[in-house]
Amino acid sequence: MRKLLILLFATFILLPMYGKEIVVNVIFENTENIKDFKGELYIKELNKTYPINGTEDFEITFPEEGNFTILLKEKNISRTAIYPAKITEKNTILIISLKKQTEVQGNIAELRLEDNESNFIVFGIVDETNSDEYLNFKKEFDVGFISKTDAIDPVSYKEAVENNRRLANLLNQKFGESWKSKLPIKLFGVE
After folding, report:
1. 3-state SS assignment for residue 12
2. CA 85/CA 126 separation, integer angstroms
3. CA distances, 22 to each of 59, 83, 90 (Å)
4. What does pTM read for this prediction?
5. I need a labelling partner for 30 at 20 to 30 A (CA). Which of 76, 129, 136, 175 fits?
C-alpha cells in the first residue's frame, strides 16, 4: 500500500513537469508600413512551417519548453528579429520585429558616402558625436556618427552592424586600413 501511495504521489507531482505543451502568442512589431504580409514561420527543431497571412497575432503550440531556432520567410522583409528563442512556461510571448525592404537597390552606404550623408551608428549613454574627435574624423573621411542612446534591441543591433560594415568596407577600399586607427570609438560590425 505504501509503495502504491508513493507511486501515485510521484505520478501526480512529477508527470505534469515533463512534456507539458505550451501555447505561445506570436506578436508582430513595426507593422505600420507593411501591407499584404504573407510568409512562413519555420521552427527548425519541430520541422514545422506555419503560414502567415497578415500581421495579426496568432498562437502556436510547442510540445515542451526549450530553445528553438525560429525563422521568418518573406521576400519583402529585409530585417527581422525574433525573440526570445527560449520558450518556457512563463515565457509564452514570441515577438517578431519587422523592417520592410527599401525601394533603393544596390549599395546604399556608397550612395550616402558620395552625398556626404554617411554615418556610423554608435550606441552609448551619452551622445559624444559632437566632440572634436568625432568631428575631426568626419572632416577627414566624410563619414559622421549617429548616436543612439536608447536600449539596444536585436533589430537596432543588426541594423547598426550591417550599416557599419558597409561603410567600413567602403572606407577600406578608399583609404585602406589606416582610417581605423583614427576611429574615436569601437563600432559594432567593425573589427
Report:
1. helix
2. 31
3. 10, 16, 9
4. 0.47
5. 129
Inter-residue contact 58 to 27 (CB < 8 Å): no
The one-letter code for the residue type at 189 is G
Per-residue pLDDT band for 92 (boundaries 50, 70, 90) equals confident
Q: What is the DSSP string of 82-149?
A: EE-SEE-SS--EEEEEEEEPPS--S-HHHHHHHTT--EEEEE-SS--TTSHHHHHHHHHHS-EEEEE-
d(Cα 37, Cα 53) in Å, to the nearest integer? 6
Cell numbers at 147, concatenated: 548616436
Cell of 119: 554615418
For residue 15, give the amino acid letter: L
Rounded Cα distance between 107 and 29, Å, is: 26
Which positions ≥6 away from 36 have C-beta within 8 Å?
none
Distance, in Å, from the CA atom of 14 to the CA atom of 6, rounded to the nearest integer, reads: 12
Quick: pLDDT tens for 24-55.
888 888 777 777 778 888 888 888 888 888 88
